[in-house]
């Protein structure tokens, strides 16, 4: 397969019915990309600003999303004033997925099927279910089973 190298240039690429497998983009500006009906298995995005990213109609089985948000304290790029803009998941099937070591302060779950969902070893301070504090629900449960 031919390799095309573009260095220190501004170019617009239009690829249709093309195989670009194995392509690499390093230190590149890719704003306003539109990817439609593409296979991107094993795609890896590292150190990227994905603000206003929209993913629709995607199969993401096996995806591993980690270290998302502002850099942690101690990281050279840490900014104590950084405020993460909200991320929205809508009409998604996340069956059998896991979430761990995530800060979900002020996180809202609405109109979701939580059948067999588990919350384990989490700080539930201020968390509510349908307006009722979970700490109150757990206290009532503990009193009822005594």
Task: Report what the structure shows.
The chain has 1 helix and 2 strands. The mean pLDDT is 93. With 146 residues, it is low in regular secondary structure. Strand 1 (128-129) and strand 2 (132-133) form a beta hairpin. Strands 1-2 form a two-stranded antiparallel ribbon. The radius of gyration is 21 Å and the shape is elongated.
Write the layout of secondary structure elements.
Blueprint: E1 128-129, E2 132-133, H1 134-144
Order of helices and strands: EEH
Radius of gyration over C-alpha positions, nearest whole angstrom: 21 Å
Helix content: under 10%
Cα distance spanning the termini: 71 Å
Task: Report the uncertain regions.
Answer: none
Strand content: under 5%
How would you write the strand order of the largest sheet? Answer: 1-2
Number of helices: 1
Averaged pLDDT, please?
A: 93
* Biggest sheet record: 2 strands, antiparallel
Task: Give me the secondary-structure category.
Answer: little secondary structure
Number of strands: 2
Summarize the structure.
The chain is largely without helices or strands and 146 residues long. Helix content is 8%, strand content 3%.
Give me some keywords for this one:
2 strands, two-stranded antiparallel ribbon, 146 residues, little secondary structure, 1 helix, 3% strand
